[in-house]
Structures are given as structure tokens and as C-alpha cells.
Amino acid sequence: MNHTPHASWAEVYDLAYERSFGPLYGRLTDLTLNVISELCASPSHIIDFGAGTGRLAIPLAREGHEVVAVDPCEAMLEQLRKKANGVEIVTECCSMSDFRSSKPADLALGVFTVLLYIQEEQELLESLSAVRSALKDGGRMLVDVATSALFHGFEMSDGLLTRQVTIQSCGGAHYLYRESLELQNPDGDVTRYDDEFVIRRWATDEILEIARACGFVIERDLSAEFAGSGSQYFLLQTE
Ligand SMILES: C[S@@+](CC[C@H](N)C(=O)[O-])C[C@H]1O[C@@H](n2cnc3c(N)ncnc32)[C@H](O)[C@@H]1O
Asked: Best label site of 3, 15, 35, 39, fewest CB within 10 Å?
């Protein structure tokens, strides 16, 4: 499979997530922003890895932070730039492992399942090592680890949007994620979006061990605060 996940449906990504997860989605965003505001006063330098359409990057930039949004999917970054509507955010179209910066940051984000797109240990090592290099000494990373709760397909339909997600084991820790969306247009036509890509279910210990090998210590386990999100959240700090 040689394509970038999310590229085919980036323009309906926000609608799909808002409609599928309802108020929980907004509450998770508010909670994440509150945690970040306790970690760093504005203005801080924040790199949002896997920024997607800017769920966190845009409000953080509005709060006055200097934000770099990193994502390998140009179509997702295009949505981010449209929504930012003049708010200054630097966008970098690359994967976490390829990111390089000469200006060390205070905080890195890699949340809302960004790590499950990384399929091999070597790439995870290179990714967290690149994050470490992009941070100041004493800088931090907020990261989540998807639990088994997120490895189930679902279907929803609300008159505007019909969404079907299937997640099938490919054996071992790898899964095939399939997305199928139908959007009802005002003129009665239906627009269809399809995507499929491989994701990996990482064990928490695998990620934390690789984080330690890249020069992080586990500062806090924030999973209790994020209960119900389907992920464990950790605050890492550079040694
Ligand atoms: C589910 S979205 C989460 C977006 C955003 N972090 C949020 O909190 O709303 C996952 C994002 O990770 C991006 N991604 C996938 N592989 C990546 C990688 N190797 N490095 C950085 N981002 C990646 C995808 O393109 C997608 O935009």
C-alpha cells in the first residue's frame, strides 16, 4: 500500500470525528488543552507531531504559543491552514522520524493515536529520537498509547454522514484499518470516501522502553485524567 493515510478523506475528517464521537471529542480536546496550559505558559514553543487538521495546534496558536504542525499528510495540513484563518502556524509535511529543527522546543505533542501509524520498532526509535533532538533539555512530550478499546470497528449514520470503520488483524501487532464514508450533499448526491492503511497496536511498555532509550524519563502517567478516551497518556521529560 503506497499512499498516505487520511489523504483521500481529509476534507471530511473533522466532520467524521465530530459526528462519530459527539461531545466526547470536544471534552477530550478541552482536557488536553488544559493539561498543556498547566505544563507551559504562553508563549511557549510547541511542536504538534501528527497535528492533523489542527484540533490542538490551532487553539494553542490562538493562545499565543509558537506552534509548528508536523504531519506526513499534506491534505490534512491543508485543512489545518484553511481553518487557522490567518493565525500563524508553521506547517511541515513530514513524518515524525524525518523532522529536524534548529530551534529547540519546550513541548512536543504526539497525541490522539499518532504512534499507531508507526509500524516498526526502528521507525519508532527514529521518531522518538527526532522528537528528543527537537526539544530543549528539560523539554517534555505528551504522548498517548491506544488501548485495545480503540481496535474495534464501528458504524454510524445520522442522515448527513454514514461511516463504517473496520479494523482487522493482519497477525501479530498489525491491523488493517478500513474507512468508508458517505456524505449526503444538499443536492441529493452522495460523495463517497474510502481509505485503508495498516496500524500497529503497541504495548505500553514497548513505547516507554523506546522512549527511555531515546533519552526520556517518564515524568507522569496521566491515564487516569484521560479515562474514557481509549488511550493511556504519558508525560515524558528529556533527561
Ligand atoms: C488520528 S489523527 C490525530 C490528529 C491530531 N493529533 C489530533 O489530536 O487531532 C493522526 C494523525 O497522525 C498523522 N501521522 C501518521 N503517521 C505519522 C508519522 N509517522 N509522524 C507524524 N504524524 C503521523 C496522520 O497523518 C494524522 O493526521
From this structure: 3
CA atoms within 13 A on the CB side of 7: 9
Domain 7-148+203-238: state its class.
alpha beta
Structural domain spans, the chain = 7-148+203-238, 154-196
User: What pTM, to 2 d.p., does this model score?
Assistant: 0.98
Q: List, in sequence order, every residue forming a beta bridge with 193; answer none if it has no partner.
A: 181
Radius of gyration for the chain, computed over Cα atoms and rounded to the nearest angstrom: 17
Q: How many Cβ atoms sit within 10 Å of the Cβ of residue 69? A: 29
SS3 for 93?
Answer: coil
Could you report the per-residue pLDDT of 28-65, keeping only the tens digit for each?
Answer: 999 999 999 999 999 999 999 999 999 999 999 999 99
188 C-alpha to center of ligand 1: Å? Answer: 32
Ligand 1 centre distance from Cα of residue 111 (Å): 8
